[in-house]
Every structure is written in structure tokens, then in C-alpha cells.
Write a structure and sequence with these properties.
The protein is an all-alpha fold. It folds into two domains: about 110 residues, Orthogonal Bundle (Cyclin A, domain 1); about 90 residues, Cyclin A, domain 1. It contains twelve helices and no strands. Helix 9 packs across helix 10. InterPro entries: Cyclin, Cyclin-like_dom, Cyclin-like_sf, Cyclin_A/B-like, Cyclin_C-dom, Cyclin_N, Cyclins_cyclin-box. It holds the Pfam family Cyclin_C. One of its GO terms (molecular function) is cyclin-dependent protein serine/threonine kinase regulator activity. Belongs to the cyclin family.
């Protein structure tokens, strides 16, 4: 599939070793789930608003889903390490998006200018440059977080790369990105839960030994997570 071609982790004979490495670092690069307790000026509600805004910017540029998921991870990790004022939250959000874009896409100057326009020129180019330096330093330049999509594509092998399941699972991952309860969920687990839920809704049968092999999670490990993602979709629909 096109998705698989784009994902270098799926293109080598030693992909098992690559995923072993991904599993070893995914816990190291996840945010503290209680980080909002350390923030005195912002709340989870404001996180939802800024991520929803980032999603709109991401959609506007038609960037890869990897860029979106990495941007949210960078933002959460930054907020877990630095207390910020509410008027700087949008700047932090767009900075995380631009760093993720540089990492995942071929970013050019036009993108930065358009992002400035989207903030209604609330920030200058210099503000962005300073914010970028601050964020990269705070994160120790650790940008190699293995997002959920590599794990999702790997599990999808068990269904012979069924597009219907994968696309529905991707949607669930985007919904989960907005929900605070999944902020510290490691990507291998979250992608497996989203995939499990998609198969269940599409009535694709049970969770086979192949699914367990590729995801490294059993059905009993995923059931409550799948239920939580389903509830999150329902709540989002009522907003």
C-alpha cells in the first residue's frame, strides 16, 4: 500500500528489530499524564482547543497524519516540562506543528508565513524562531518518537492490509489525540486499541494469533481501551 511504502519501518527485512527499538523508546518519549497539575494558567480544556486548531492547520496543508501525531506529542512533552501563560499556548501549538512538519515533511518558508497568517499575525517570525529554540532545547532535541501509525500498519498486516479497518482506526486515533485521558498512552497500545475497536465495529471477526503477534497485545488487554476510545468518540459527537 502507499502508506506502507511511505513508512520505512515496514520496508526492511529486519522490521522486527525496528519495532523492538520503537517499543523501547515509546515509553521514554511520552508526557507525564499529570502535567496539567503543574500548569497554573492553562487547563485540559485549553489543550483541547489548541489541538483542535492544530488539526485545522494540518488539514489545510494536507500533511501526513504522522505530522499531526508528532506535533501533539511534542506539545504535550513541552507542556509537561514548562509552565506557560495562556496567551503563549497557541504559539507553543504552532511551534510544535512546525517542528513536526520539518521532521516529517519538506517544509519551506511559505508554510511559516501561512502559519503566521493563521494566527492573525498574533506572533512575529522572531517569536516563532525563539519559541522553536526554546521547545527543541526543552525536549533535548528528542524528536524520534515512534507515532501510532507505524504500529497500526504493522497490525494491519494481519488483515492483509485491509484499508477499511486501517482508515477507521486512523479516525479513532485522531479522536483520541483530542482526549486528555489518552495523552500518556504509548502509541503501540493506543494504535492496537483503535484497531481492535475498528475490527469490532466492522464485524471482521475475532482477535487472532496473528493480531496478537503483530500488535503484541491480547484481546483482553485491549477491551477496556477500545471501550474508552468508543466513549470518547461519542462525547466528541455531542460537543
Amino acid at each position: 500500500s502507499e502508506d506502507e511504502k511511505r513508512d520505512v519501518s515496514m520496508n526492511f527485512g529486519d522490521s522486527d528489530d525496528i519495532f523492538k527499538y520503537f517499543r523501547s523508546i515509546e515509553r521514554l518519549l511520552k508526557p507525564d499524564p499529570l502535567y496539567m497539575d503543574k500548569q497554573s494558567k492553562i487547563t485540559w480544556k485549553y489543550r483541547f482547543i489548541v489541538i483542535d486548531w492544530i488539526m485545522g492547520v494540518h488539514q489545510n496543508f494536507k500533511f501526513s497524519p504522522e505530522t499531526l501525531f508528532l506535533a501533539v506529542n511534542l506539545l504535550d512533552r513541552f507542556l509537561a516540562s514548562r509552565e506557560i501563560r495562556i496567551e503563549n499556548l497557541q504559539l507553543a501549538g504552532i511551534t510544535a506543528f512546525l517542528i513536526a512538519s520539518k521532521y516529517e515533511e519538506s517544509l519551506n518558508e511559505r508554510i511559516l508565513d501561512e502559519c503566521l497568517d493563521m494566527t492573525e499575525n498574533a506572533y512575529t517570525r522572531e517569536n516563532f524562531m525563539e519559541a522553536e529554540k526554546s521547545m527543541l532545547k526543552t525536549l533535548d532535541y528528542n524528536l524520534g518518537w515512534p507515532g501510532p501509525l507505524s504500529f497500526l500498519r504493522r497490525i494491519n498486516k494481519a488483515d492483509d492490509y485491509d484499508d477499511e479497518i486501517r482508515n477507521m482506526a486512523k479516525y479513532f486515533l485522531e479522536v483520541a489525540t483530542l482526549d486528555k485521558q489518552f495523552a500518556d498512552c504509548i502509541p503501540s497500545f493506543l494504535s492496537a486499541g483503535a484497531y481492535y475497536l475498528a475490527r469490532d465495529i466492522l464485524k471482521k471477526g475475532g482477535w487472532s494469533q496473528l493480531h496478537i503477534y503483530y500488535s503484541e497485545y491480547t484481546a483482553s488487554q485491549l477491551q477496556s481501551l477500545a471501550n474508552a476510545i468508543c466513549d470518547s468518540c461519542y462525547k466528541l459527537g455531542k460537543r
